[in-house]
Amino acid sequence: MKQSGVRIIAGQWRGRRLQVLEGEGLRPTPDRVRETLFNWLAPTIAHARCLDVFSGSGALGFEALSRGAAYVEMVDQSAAVVGLLQQELLRFGASNACVYQAKAPLQLHQVEKPFDIVFLDPPYQSDLLFTCCQYLETHGFLASQSHIYLEANQIIKDNDLPSNWQLIKKQHAGQVYYHLALRK
What residue ranges define each of the domains in the chain, with the CATH number in brackets? Predict the structure, then answer.
């Protein structure tokens, strides 16, 4: 696989480039979308525990770390992607993060402490988005007041999500529809 890069937008690593593998289905969240998302999360990102389920480029996880997240766990099913993300964690000196290979949601590692923020950006052609939402809700991954970022190629409605989740923000940019849900 060929490598390219993604720029970290803000925080301690602002302007640094994250190496990214170019592969089929791998599409880093665009800068404009990441900037909007992290503006939405600004009041809650500092000291948050984050889970990036379909890490791919790692852009969301590294952006969270750059902006003061206490801990980020990144997961991807590709061994090549996981290997590069592990190298990038070392290169950036990020000791408050880990990355592992797993097929979501069934192979996600159980957690001792739930997550405050979760990033869900599965391949658009898969049916994994809503399956993951239900799995995270029923298996103890989420803190009582967690925020969940959802990215899809279509609009998501409240009734698509677990009953105690509420969509609080949504926008679209081109083919990308992105949403922020709050778990109550």
Answer: 2-183 (3.40.50.150)
